[in-house]
Amino acid sequence: MSISVHDLHVRLGANHVLKGVDFSVETGERVAILGPNGCGKSTLLRTIAGILKPSSGEVRLDGDPLHAHRRRVRAQKMGLLNHADVVPMMTTVRDHVAIGRHPHRSFLREGSVEDAACIDEAIRFCEIEHLADRRVERLSGGERQRVRLATLFAQAPSLMLLDEPLTGLDLEHRYGLLHMLEDLNREHGRTVLVVLHDLDIAMRFFDRLLVMRDGQLVADGPSDEVMTAELLETVFRIQATVGCEPVTKQPVIVCQRGVAGP
Fold first, then answer.
1. Which of 18, 39, 68, 88 is the most exposed, having the fewest neighbouring CB atoms within 10 Å of its CB?
2. 79 with 195, same domain?
3. Which residues contact 177 (CB under 8 A, 6 or more apart)?
């Protein structure tokens, strides 16, 4: 599924959060959205998902306006992992993951064999089989995050929107998730759009970077073109260069100091 965002403006109360954002993501791309706190990354993702309504401009899915897709059909094709999701009470992990199948069910039937298989596969994929009968509110923050991810995977959307998915994950599960997203993208053709704070991870695991500042898109392209010393200073307020890790030859940011001043 492709996305296109045209002259998108979003106002939340008196705050003009997004200011004329324009970009397109083609089917099968793996893209990271970067930027300092408060620049509008999460607002952009929630607007694409239809949770927030733009003040002007529009979002298109596969060339059609977002509102032209019925909610149920949209939910079958597009899934959002929101870092601010509420923790459900008295709900087991398996029941929570099963929520991901709701858009695929008719009103007149319960879960099918296909639904059960998708739920089991998502639980295995996120390595939470040992948690399946536990209540979600009794899990650690990292375990809850893996349950949210499994719920999204069970939904099996063509377009996956993830807002800070690495939050709360230890190193093992952080890199496990990144490799999962690579597999879903390369082997199953899923389009992946992720909000991240870790610049090194974004450069290593994503084909394209969108960089935001003060509600505007200021850079768009592959990491070797986007991530420059000038951008690191003007957007992220650090004096740094992009180097190369000697063993894997992967890019890494070498920070010298923060930039003084406003």
1. 68
2. yes
3. 149, 165, 166, 169
